[in-house]
Design goal:
Peroxisomal Thiolase, Chain A, domain 1; 2 domains; two-stranded antiparallel ribbon; 14 helices; 11 strands; 34% helix; globular
């Protein structure tokens, strides 16, 4: 059934706002700014939007105030919250709603002011404990999500001989891409030695191995492929997408070194009728350096256990064999709490050919992979230009 949906829907507008520090603005305000940019980029008006997907860390009923603030009257609404992967996971229900005729234009949007918000980290942690209980872990007060990713990195090192140098190569590659991106927040060149010398936060992850804490908003607009042909930009078609979840707590996952991305990736590739060797650019949710290595393995770009060696010698950096996280990723571009919408925006821009110095020449197919929670949810999407449909 999903194969029948291949290429039937396209992303036609993208937007970002409030990147870095959105002083004086609420997350709703920068969300609205990004949404308006995306809708305008699509050649539409806000009144044309009759479908909405969104989510927030702090507001379980977030879709309702967003609808009110944007003045929408949607016939399709999805506010499923799966953490940072949500805005990739939202693609499939949006596709189904569009193809069935339930709606004609879906806005996917997110905004966060986690850096400048007056709400303290302790309040946020308290809210998460109340609405997102993890009974086996919270009593021990882990530095989650960091603690779980550090355990995953340590276990990967134990099982496969992965080294801190391999993790550093991921960080350096992301920074190399960021130096080419005027929107990236960390653009100073970085060396492996500097990464290895950085203060340790949770062994084996140092400060550079961890994503930033920023404000930011991102949005994109989806319509049916037949309508997309009449809009200003060349459409970027959704060729395949799938989401899988293995559990919520790291302590309850079947494995710390193999994620549900194995299944989401396999299903997305099957829907697209493509293989990893046909991907021109990969945007992987790199909240921590170990993520990139895990997802390269689990999505089939290299065998399990070979991710550390795969990223060596600049293989995922500019000029490497597989361009990965071409905007600089969550490690060097931006990471406002949940990152899935931002990697989608970057993939669309790469396939449009509008990325300037960081543009991957001839990019026709892009993979976007979202991760949520503590390796909890995994969502994969494969996007392509009109020529790939």
């Amino acid at each position: 059934m999903n194969r029948d949906l291949r290429g039937k829907v396209a992303i036609v507008g993208v937007g970002q706002a409030g990147l870095g520090k959105a002083d004086g603005f609420t997350e709703m305000e920068i969300l609205a700014q990004a949404a308006r940019v995306a809708v305008d980029d699509a050649g539409l008006r806000m009144g044309d939007i009759d479908g909405l997907t969104t989510a927030s860390v702090l507001a379980p009923m977030w879709a309702m105030p967003v609808i009110e603030y944007l003045g929408l009257d949607p016939t399709f609404i999805d506010s499923t919250m799966l953490g940072g992967s949500s805005f990739v996971a939202h693609m499939m229900p949006a596709i189904q709603a569009l193809v069935s005729g339930q709606c004609s234009a879906v806005l996917v949007c997110y905004g966060s002011t986690q850096r400048t918000s007056p709400i303290s980290r302790s309040v946020i942690a308290s809210v998460r404990r109340d609405f997102d209980p993890q009974p086996y872990e919270y009593p021990y007060e882990p530095l989650n999500p960091l603690s779980t990713y550090a355990m995953a990195a340590a276990r990967h090192m134990h099982e496969y001989g992965t080294t801190r140098e391999n993790l550093a190569d991921v960080v350096v590659a992301a920074r190399s891409w960021a130096t080419l991106n005027p929107d990236a927040l960390r653009r100073t060149p970085l060396t492996r030695a500097e990464v290895l010398a950085a203060p340790m936060i949770s062994d084996p992850l140092s400060t550079f191995d961890c994503c930033m804490v920023n404000d930011g908003a991102a949005a994109y607009v989806m319509v049916r492929a037949d309508r997309a042909r009449d809009l200003p930009h060349a459409p970027v078609h959704v060729l395949g997408t799938a989401t899988r979840v293995h559990g919520r707590q790291g302590s309850s996952l079947p494995s710390l070194t193999e994620t549900a991305a194995v299944e989401s990736g396999r299903a997305a590739f099957a829907m697209a009728g493509l293989s990893p060797s046909e991907i021109d650019v990969a945007e992987l949710y790199d909240a921590f350096s170990i993520n990139t290595i895990l997802f390269l393995e689990d999505l089939g770009f290299c065998p399990k256990g070979e991710g550390g060696r795969f990223v060596a010698d600049g293989a995922i950096a500019p000029g490497g064999s597989l361009p990965v996280n071409t905007n600089g990723g969550g490690l060097s571009c931006i990471h406002p709490g949940m990152y899935g919408a931002f990697i989608t925006v970057e993939a669309v821009r790469q396939l449009r050919g509008t990325c300037g110095e960081r543009q991957v020449a001839g990019a026709e197919v892009a993979l976007v992979h979202g991760n949520g929670g503590t390796l909890s949810s995994q969502s994969t999407a494969i996007l392509g230009t009109w020529a790939t449909v």
